[in-house]
Amino acid sequence: MFVHVIVASCIVTCVLAGCTPNPCLNGGTCVDVPSSEDVRCICAPGWDGPVCSTHFRYLGCYMNQMQRVLPVRYPDSTSNSPLECASRCRSYRFAGVENSNECFCGNVQPVVSKPESECNAVCPGESTKKCGGVWRVSVYSNRAPMYRGCYVDTIPRVLPTQKTPNSPTNTPLECASRCIGFAFSGVEASGECFCGTVLPTVLKPDSECNYACPGNSALKCGGWLRISVYSN
């Protein structure tokens, strides 16, 4: 039996033995392909690849300049896409696609963001995606958020910006994607997601962050007034 995963508009295929056990990692959903014996992985937000094992987060549209904001440039590609560029940039923290066929890499996130409408060039290898624009680079993170520990939360909140009060798909990675632009993200009481710029100070044992994440029950999403904190 084969498993397919949709990577944007293309389908990647590999040999697997069906949906039992689930071959899709990190909260991915395995589904049967109609009228065939094949199955397909639908990846959770922030994951990509044939079995959802590749960290991949869109960070936004940024201004580029002559001294490139992501300084490493790969040769232009007629099959350029966010995932292809991220694969080429696998040794770097960030990947960026620009002007349709350009791919850049770097370890420092650009700072001057622009409206999404200015990243309007179609990707030649993935026509449903945008690959930057003229001096505009669509930037992606090649890294998962880094776990910093289980902390005491308070009122007012130690991470003051709340993004979701009760998300049915909450995970650390989903929350980190909601907290783009913040230094830290935190998940709490299963479904809650908070963002902030200052790391909390009162550290607790990981055993006190014991609530399962609704988007991936294998992961923990804080507890009662306990917040699992990640660096973005």
Automatic annotation (TrEMBL):
The keyword Ubl conjugation does not apply. GO terms for biological process: cell morphogenesis; gliogenesis; neuron development. Disulfide bonds join C24-C41, C43-C52. SUPFAM superfamilies: EGF/Laminin (SSF57196). Keywords: Disulfide bond, EGF-like domain, Glycoprotein, Membrane, Repeat, Signal, Transmembrane, Transmembrane helix. Residues 55-143, 144-232 form the WSC domain. Its main location: membrane. Coiled coil: none annotated. It is a single-pass membrane protein. SMART domains: EGF, WSC. Residues 15-53 form the EGF-like domain. The keyword Metal-binding does not apply. Residues 1-17 form the signal peptide. It is found in: Membrane. One of its GO terms (cellular component) is plasma membrane. PANTHER family: KREMEN PROTEIN (PTHR24269), PROTEIN SLG1 (PTHR24269:SF16). This is WSC domain-containing protein. The lineage of its organism: Eukaryota, Metazoa, Spiralia, Lophotrochozoa, Mollusca.
